[in-house]
């Protein structure tokens, strides 16, 4: 199989080099390019990567602006934001703009490689620290969020099964294998789930799954 093509966008050369080494350490991944924010759109257009690892805070063009540009491409890559910050503001804005993942820069190398594979397969990936933030204290608060429960109440039983696994960060093929379904059927279920939940992407749906209590603590 062809390797997963990755582009790293960060204003710091040292960070780009370090991430490039991590990506290059895996036989099934290939770093095809790296740049700062201002060059990202043209580089991605030219190299057509499967996954982009994108820094949130850059001086020439911030990551959220770059993300919005990339999402307008005819065949946009899966984008995971990379940052040293895990504040609600950055996470919420990135998810609303269409990020498929949100990873902290201190993510372990093997976890980063795993995240790239999941993103390339159509899954979503949040680092554990970020997941705790987006769940919004559901565990500590003593139970599921009422608004999320209301939303998932519109789903069929099979859609709930799919949403729970989506909340664990599984890709379509993994969900299909777990539930003994075809990949196309899983895609149809996810499209229906997003529509019913009013979610613009699978990460937002995963957040709702967590807040509704569909994902057991420690599973995502």
TrEMBL record:
Keywords, comma-separated and alphabetical: DNA-binding, Phosphoprotein, Transcription, Transcription regulation
Pfam hit, one: Response_reg
Every HTH luxR-type domain range: 148-213
Residues in Response regulatory domain copies: 5-120
A molecular function (GO) term: DNA binding
4-aspartylphosphate: modified positions: 55
Gene3D superfamilies: 3.40.50.2300
Protein name in UniProt: DNA-binding response regulator
Organism field: Streptomyces tateyamensis
Lineage of the species this protein comes from: Bacteria, Bacillati, Actinomycetota, Actinomycetes, Kitasatosporales
